[in-house]
Amino acid sequence: MRGIWIPVLAAAPVLWGAPPDFTTGVQPILRKRCVMCHNERLAQNGLRLDDPAKLREGGYSGPVLVPGKSAESKLFARISSTKKGFMMPPAGAPLTPGEIQIVKSWIDGGAQLPEAASAVSSAKPVQSDHWAFKPVRQPQPPAVSRPDWPKNPIDRFVLARLEREKIAPSPEAPKTTLIRRASLDIIGLPPTPEEVRAFLADQRPDAYERLVDRLLSSEHYGEQRARAWLDLARYADSDGYEKDQVRPYAWRWRNYVIDSFNQDKPFDQFTIEQMAGDLLPGAKTEQLVATGFHRNALTNREGGTDPKESRFEQLVNRTNTFSTVWLGLTYGCAQCHDHKYDPISQRNYYELFAFFNQAEGVDIDAPMPGEFGPWMRSRPQYLKDREHLNRVYGAEALQDEWESYIRKAMDNPGRDMEWDFAVANGRPMFDRFEEVIRTPKEQRTPRDRERLFYWFINNPGPVKDHERDRQKVAALREMRQRLQQIDAAAPKLTQAAVIHELDGPVETHIAVKGDYRERGVKVTPAVPAVLPPLPAGAPGNRLTLARWLVGRDNPLTARVAVNRLWQEFFGRGIVRTSEDFGTQGDRPTHPELLDWLAAEFVEQGWSVKKMVRLIVTSATYRQSSNTRPELAERDPENMLLARQSRVRLPAEALRDSALRASGLLNPAVGGPSVHPPQPAGVAELVYAGSFKWKEDEGPARYRRGLYIHYQRTAPYPMLANFDAPDANVACSRRRRSNTPLQALNLLNDPVFYEAAQAMALRVLDEAEP
Fold first, then answer.
1. Is the pLDDT at 36 greater than 80, yes or no?
2. Residues 716/709, Cβ–Cβ less than 8 Å
3. How far apart, in whole angstroms, are the C-alpha atoms of residue 196 and residue 180?
């Protein structure tokens, strides 16, 4: 017999015979309230205590469940407590005394579990009626009563909506407005007087289309498109966090972006290269450089930082950025728990996270044209000079000794606090510090040997109070000075920060409540369950993920991309919340138009230039932006597009326009970031005065705003005042503010002051008598 339960005293049970059965007595209680879950749903993070398989796993032996000892079991402590913040369940009605007694008796009786145990199931397909998750279908452009107005299919969708609302579109803007609008939108620069005169004089029927084609062929086109992509990629020239060290070659990835747009690289290829260029067969240097997209994440280099925590935070950043940029979803909401509104579970989050957990950052040589020849010719003499310094100062033996001390400190923490500090400083400041130190030097890559040598020369460890250490430090200081001289004279190769796949598989576990220290169940790479699955049998790596992104079955990528393009030319997207296509985001104002554009984008070979041309040659885009009294109440936000929107220029374009009008603009494309004048004291805000803003003189001073060095903890004030994003997370649309600082900036900033002076001289010089 299993025993007889007799309710006594307010349902407190008394047991004769065997303890309660798990399946019939205990499991229903645990399932009823999911007592150890941080939310009240059946958890997917490993704390599902109604599952005998999870109770049997080693992770739940010990304090959570100690068979035969309820007093030592955290499970019983939680369900019997009345302390808020500790008791389980955390909300709602507590377990009854009878239910608590059943669980207690089961634990004290040995906590027997059935042999057949169901595992926590992996993600299964999820159905959703939300519009964004439905397949893209290209509808036929609707019929309209004014067939003379549309210039391409876009206009028929817009006009059909206006006709339903009984609203007429606005007339076409004057030619002077059109050339200024198109120039600023396509290349980010105002037209020159000569260009305006030539356009006004061109009376051919296709004069405007010719203007658009000329602008699309400009090398500045890639700069304008890159500006929005850099916002999405959270691009900056420094690490962020406390130390915020400069990234001297961050611009190399920016060059890739500009070049890609100028070449009209298909967006699917552009996506695949940035997501997984290193995994492409026979990957070329530019495809490796493309993966620098992922390296734009912040890097914490503060001494004592836990490397595991830092890596976890970077992977979270990459996962969230991926979902914002290509899926238009707020995936980050599922880091700690199931998404509150969208069909995204916490398990889904870490399955996506797992794709990025297989990679790590490395630096590579990515020379620009003309660099490799001089570097190659000078290399033998450079290595000879450096080897001479090594022999003179005995650097190799000193480095071997230093490495030995570092390894001892790693193996025996707490024995020597000074060497512990050297280790704690090296781990965050030197990528893969412990891995490189523990690799025998003959097995290290040439780049790792070089990196470690320079780290040692600049960080030789603690100096003990005896003569040998003082002599060693003096010798290394002298060697460092001589080494700096030969390094300064030697030609350099441009570097690039990229990622590459790790050699072996890395296990990914759900982080319970988003805490990297609390490992939940193991997960494998998978895409959101609400979207089409990966191809059967495809490897679970970033290349598979990238190809899935741009596959025809994915309903989000093309929609998200064309919506952002639309946003650039009309001030707001067809879906206003361009970062959120989920259930809490705005619905599209013209859903059929959005799907037509998305399907057309794919049919046109993912050509961004073709989509830009389609948009800017539409009658909708060419409308006057004059306000209309009859629309003030009916459509104050211009959602129906009965006129063109008036959109303020972004920060960079404001500066570029002033420089272009004054004649000071340096139109060079690509290359390193620049340091134009900025107010005194701004650079000093960076940690411990470690960053120096060396103001550029000459042509670099007048380069476009896209190239201004962006220091995360002390951003260029003019860009910050005019709402440039902070580069910490992906920015899909910039906010627009009005502050007194903006007016003061335009009045007093040295750049605008110089531009005003140059403009005055230009007027005096060019004005007709």
1. no
2. yes
3. 8
CA nearest neighbour of 181 among 592, 631, 647: 647
Residue 343, C-beta contacts closer than 8 angstroms, at least 6 positions apart: 126, 128, 130, 133, 528, 529, 530
Evaluated on CA atoms 332, 335, 341, 344, the torsion sign reads positive
500 strand-pairing partners: 360
Confidence (pLDDT) at 154: 98
Summarize the confidence of residues 421-433 as an average pLDDT.
Answer: 92
Q: What is the pLDDT of residues 659-670, one digit of tens each?
A: 999 999 999 999
pLDDT digit string, tens, across residues 108-126:
888 787 764 333 334 567 7
The two most distant CA atoms of the chain are separated, in Å, by 115
For residue 710, the one-letter residue type is Y
Residue-level pLDDT at 434? 92
Residue % of the chain over a pLDDT of 70: 91
Residues 207 and 182 sit within 8 Å (Cβ to Cβ)? no
Helices (runs of H) and strands (runs of E) counted in the chain: 30, 6
Query: Among residues 115, 80, 106, 121, which one has the least CA distance to residue 28?
Result: 106
Q: Cα separation of 433 and 311, whole Å?
A: 13
Rounded to 5°, the CA angle 110-115-119 comes to: 110
For residues 507 and 522, give the distance between their C-alpha atoms in angstroms, rounded to a whole number: 7
pLDDT recorded at residue 58:
41
User: Helices 591-603 and 153-164 meet at what angle, rounded to 10?
Assistant: 170
Listed in sequence order, the residues at least 6 apart from 591 whose beta carbon sits closer than 8 Å to its beta carbon are 131, 574
pLDDT digits (tens, 9 = 90+) for 447-466: 999 999 999 999 988 876 55
Contacts of 539 (CB under 8 A, 6+ apart): none
Determine which helix (DSSP H) or strand (DSSP E) holds 498, and give its type and residue range.
Answer: strand 495-501
- Give the pLDDT band (50/70/90) at residue 568: very high
Please state, as a whole number, how many other Cβ atoms lie within 10 Å of the Cβ of residue 524: 14
DSSP 50: T
User: Which residue in 99, 75, 69 sits closest to 7, CA to CA?
Assistant: 99
What is the per-residue pLDDT for 89? 76
Question: Residue 600: enclosing H or E segment and its boundaries?
Answer: helix 591-603
From start to end of 585-709, where are the E strands? none
Q: Which of 87-96, 580-589, 595-604 has the lowest mean pLDDT?
A: 87-96
Token couple for 339: 């998404």
What are the residues whose beta carbons fall under 8 Å from the beta carbon of 534, sequence distance 6 or more? 526, 527, 540, 544, 545, 548
Q: Give the whole-angstrom CA distance, residue 224 versus residue 216.
A: 11
Q: What is the pLDDT of residues 496-511, one digit of tens each?
A: 999 999 988 899 999 9
What pLDDT score was predicted for residue 452?
Answer: 95
Per-residue 3-state assignment (H helix, E strand, C coil) for 208-250: HHHHHHHHHCCCHHHHHHHHHHHHHCCCCCECCCCCCCECCCC
Complete DSSP assignment for 266-285: -HHHHHHHHHHGGGSTT--H
Those residues whose C-beta lies under 8 Å from the C-beta of residue 426, and which sit 6 or more positions away, are 406, 433, 437, 455, 459
Structure tokens at 88: 């389980």
Task: Name the residue type at position 348.
Answer: N
- Distance separating alpha carbons of residues 599 and 267, to the nearest angstrom: 13
Instruction: State the pLDDT at residue 723.
Output: 96
Measured distance CA(20)–CA(103) in Å, rounded: 8
Residue 42 scores a pLDDT above 60 = no
pLDDT of residue 18: 65
What is the pTM (predicted TM-score) of this model? 0.86
Question: What are the tokens at 175?
Answer: 């030619």
User: Residue 550, exposed/middle/buried by CB under 10 A (0-12, 13-18, 19+)?
Assistant: buried
Task: Report the chain's terminal Cα–Cα distance, integer Å.
Answer: 115
3 state SS for 563-587: HHHHHHHHCCCCCCCCCCCCCCCCC
Residue 44 banded pLDDT, cuts 50, 70, 90 = very low
